[in-house]
Amino acid sequence: MKHNKLLYFILGTLATTLLGTFGTAHSTQPVQAKTKVQTTQIVKTKPTKYWVKPNVSNKAYAYTAKLGKKLFKLKTHQKVVFTSQYQRKIKVSGKYQTYRYVKGNNLKGWVKSSYLTKASSPTATTTTTTTPTTTETTTSVTNSSSSSTTTPVKTPVKDPAKSYTPDQGVSWASSNITYAFYPKMNNSEKALWYSAIQEWNSVNVVNLSETSDYNNANIKITNVASNSDGVDAHTVGISYIQRATTRNPAGFYAMKSAVIGILPEQAIKFNFDYAYTQFIAVHEMGHALGLAHSTDENDVMYPNEKDPYTQKITEADINTLKYLYNKQ
Ligand SMILES: [Zn+2]
């Protein structure tokens, strides 16, 4: 009997990169120290969006200006939409090659242009970010510009009469949370997440709304390659969570970023159908909202699903969500 493992990771305090905190991606050893590196002048170009080519080698990196140091492994950051407006040629072993200076998701560095491909520019539709008009007071995000008016931090207390699933001690500053899809996801992949999101929105604790701005969305939804960090042979869904060291108004650590995804190759391998995979999306979204794993197999936050076709978000899952967003 095959069970998919639903994994999640909390990356301790805020690191400088998003997913790079895993594994050994942060190599800083000099590359080919003996090679003489010659560079042409940096040329400014029109700002253009790029991402890393899907088939990029494991040995492809972003570097400092003269290829002195490796900054990050490209394969680990294939979901990032980078912006580049500078390029130069760098001569390595007698041959000039074009490099682009890319920035995105707190990452920056020089990347060989043949490793990059243009990201399709987001369609210029009138995407009005539907700001939900709930009675909820929109707190810290807007207030934080004036440093004197800090939102008071509450001390979270659980109601002894209620049951809860465990939490990560982390939540978003506001219950109005944005999400965005990785630009290459197709409509049927998105539909799977829309139904999962609908399920969380329908419990009326948080309001998840879509934005087209992937890099600045609170929750980033993507498809994950089966060779990604933290993935093993049984992983079908995954979430990567980063938190800040500061507390948000509800009294929890402030969620800094959440990247969640399904591994399509794994879902196919296990013959998971739409409904099954959609259940996994509900679970991963729970992590992105601050929920941890439950020990009760009925909860959606239980790490191995009991019955994905009938299982719904339970009272205990909802209580934890309310607790995390100060809505008890
Ligand atoms: Zn999980």
From TrEMBL:
Pfam family, one: Peptidase_M10
Bias (Low complexity): 121-155
Record carries keyword Protease: yes
One of the protein's GO biological processes: proteolysis
Domain Peptidase metallopeptidase: 168-327
GO cellular component: extracellular matrix
Highest taxon of the lineage: Bacteria
Residue span of region Disordered: 121-165
InterPro entries reported for this sequence: MetalloPept_cat_dom_sf, Pept_M10_metallopeptidase, Pept_M10A, Peptidase_Metallo
Record flagged with keyword Ribosomal protein: no
GO molecular function: metalloendopeptidase activity; zinc ion binding
Signal peptide: 1-27
Keywords from the named record: Hydrolase, Metal-binding, Metalloprotease, Protease, Signal, Zinc
UniProt-recorded name of the protein: Matrixin family metalloprotease
Organism lineage: Bacteria, Bacillati, Bacillota, Bacilli, Lactobacillales
